[in-house]
């Protein structure tokens, strides 16, 4: 196996172990055995099972973002990235809401917060009428500030949503849209779902 194949095997193994036995502690021995990779080789590719799991989840989400950006115009892509994020979290809810929640939510926050902040900044720059009163479209710091503020609230809300026994994507999207202090130009509930399947 080449390096890429080894990393992919380790990521598949850690996702499988974490999703099938979310209450079980992940160990290097368990992950390397499930991946068919000698334990001695494991540390050439990952520092810990938690780091490997966080990277596997983050990479899946970022790959989906790239695919969306290639297929859709900027406005549709923004709404699809939000939907894709919620679908990703719902898909892996047993892992995100399990005993590794704290560490994984921190990793998810790093991945999502950057993307969501960029989405919010793009919305504000593309549609200055969405800016709160008193903020100029030329005020970059203010736009970044507002986008970060909205993103922080969205992330906190998602962490509450993932606690549900079976997080409902449509309900989550409705709630995010309803509580956002910024009017939405794109209805995430009507975004084309086929772009994020598979």
TrEMBL record:
It comes from the Bacteria. This is HTH tetR-type domain-containing protein. It comes from Microbacterium sp. LWS13-1.2.
């Amino acid at each position: 196996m080449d390096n890429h194949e080894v990393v992919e095997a380790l990521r598949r193994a850690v996702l499988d172990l974490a999703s099938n036995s979310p209450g079980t502690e992940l160990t290097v021995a368990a992950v390397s055995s499930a991946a068919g990779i000698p334990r001695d080789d494991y540390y050439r590719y990952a520092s810990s099972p938690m780091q490997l799991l966080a990277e596997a989840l983050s990479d899946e989400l970022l790959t989906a973002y790239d695919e969306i950006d290639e297929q859709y115009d900027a406005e549709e892509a923004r709404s699809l990235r939000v939907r894709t994020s919620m679908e990703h979290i719902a898909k892996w809810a047993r892992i995100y809401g399990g005993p590794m929640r704290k560490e994984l939510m921190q990793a998810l926050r790093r991945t999502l917060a950057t993307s969501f902040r960029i989405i919010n900044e793009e919305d504000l720059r593309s549609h200055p009428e969405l800016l709160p009163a008193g903020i100029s479209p030329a005020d970059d710091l203010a736009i970044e500030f507002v986008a970060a503020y909205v993103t922080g609230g969205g992330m906190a809300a998602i962490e509450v949503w993932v606690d549900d026994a079976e997080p409902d994507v449509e309900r989550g999207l409705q709630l995010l849209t309803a509580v956002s202090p910024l009017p939405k130009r794109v209805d995430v509930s009507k975004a084309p779902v086929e772009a994020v399947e598979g």
